[in-house]
Design goal:
The protein is mostly helical and 118 residues long. The protein is built from six helices and three strands. The chain has one domain: Winged helix-like DNA-binding domain superfamily/Winged helix DNA-binding domain (Arc Repressor Mutant, subunit A), CATH 1.10.10.10. β2 and β3 form a beta hairpin. α2 runs antiparallel to α4. InterPro entries: ArsR-like_HTH, HTH_ArsR_DNA-bd_dom, HTH_MetalResp_TranReg, WH-like_DNA-bd_sf, WH_DNA-bd_sf.
Length: 118
Amino acid sequence: MTAATKSSGRALPHPEFGEIRLEAVLHALSDPMRLRIVRELALCERELACSYFELPVTKSTTTHHFRVLRESGVIRQCYRGTAKMSGLRRDDLDALFPGLLDGVLRAAARQAERLDGA
C-alpha cells in the first residue's frame, strides 16, 4: 500500500503490467468518449483531474468511461485530496504493444480533421 493510499484510504484497482490485455485496451479505445479522454491525456502529457474533462454525457456515464479506461490498463487513477487524477499509462502500453497507442492517436486525429472539414 502506498503512502497516498494510506493517507486517503481510497485505492482504485488497476491491472498490473502483465495483466493488461490487448482486447481490453482495444475495447476501451473503441468508444468515442473514451478515445477523446485518451487524446486529451496524450496531448497534456500529465495527470489531469476528472473534472477537467467536459464531456457531453452525464456524470455517471463519465465515471463509467474512466472506470473502463482504468480497468483495461489504459490510464492510472489516484486520489489527490478530493480530486481523482488520471494519467495515461503510455510507458506500459508502449512496452506491451509497441506503436499501438501512437497509431490509434494518429488515426483519431486524422478522423477528427476529416469530420471537422466535412
